[in-house]
């Protein structure tokens, strides 16, 4: 199924294993100080439960970032590290998703988008922190549009491009995103006004969730693995990198599991990602070098909980 990964990553409900191993633990309420190579913000999820947590990259300091009455997920951290944009699930049926922001200390939760029966997701701060790009989904993910607004929620508008999960270039002048306008998901770029659309990939795979490296010279993304994309085993994805012009594609994970949603460390030397390589359908946060080496597990969630959507905190920020 071509959109399987998108549906799994976006839906509020995830099928989880009920087994538990000896390494699983409840959250540790100790300081997030960045020891072990930085701080990662992620979604602590089980069924309809969605909470945003932070954890040191060495696996210590796991703690909740905000105590909200609604489920929060699909987040991004402002360039100065002081605010988090995220998705809030508004109603019990999960038919309305809205973009929210809150302060890094968990205060000031504010709803920015207010359209009913659409799913606003994947907010991403502009490099100067003044704007947010986001995706608006309709009809159970069958239509997807790139939208833009100011950081206070004003000037919300569709930029005329069909796609999802837009990420800014380092100069703030363009987006990289995924779209299925050609039939399967490919990676594209466009200017922030929706003009100058360029296609970077052209394969039989589904390439999704692209993101630029801090230097802007490389792109990390995930793609369905054709050799495993068979009935009964269509949920296998691997992480790839390529140059910003689409050349020099490299497959940096290669296994029969789902490795997805890569995010660059602030110094560009590592990638955080989510994987079920330790236990099928139970995702945890991992980090690895940009060549795929030295992969290690960061989160060890309790039974019934999965850890997804890892994002690195900017080095200059504090909690």
Explained architecture:
The protein is mostly beta strands and 319 residues long. It has one domain: TolB, C-terminal domain (Neuraminidase), CATH 2.120.10. Helices cover 2% and strands 43% of the residues. It contains 1 helix and 24 strands. The radius of gyration is 18 Å and the shape is globular. The N terminus is likely disordered.
In short:
It is built from 1 helix and 24 strands.
CATH architecture: 6 Propeller
Q: How much strand content do the residues show?
A: 35-45%
Distance between the termini: 41 Å
**How many strand elements?**
24
Task: List low-pLDDT spans.
Answer: 1-8, 13-30, 227-234
CATH class bucket: Mainly Beta
Question: Average pLDDT value?
Answer: 86
Estimated helix fraction? under 10%
Please give the count of helices.
Answer: 1
At the third CATH level, what is the topology name? Neuraminidase
CATH superfamily: TolB, C-terminal domain
Biggest sheet layout:
4 strands, antiparallel
> What class would the helix/strand composition place it in?
mainly beta
Total of domains: 1
Shape: globular
Give Rg in angstroms. 18 Å
Q: Walk across the major sheet and give the strand order.
A: 3-2-1-24
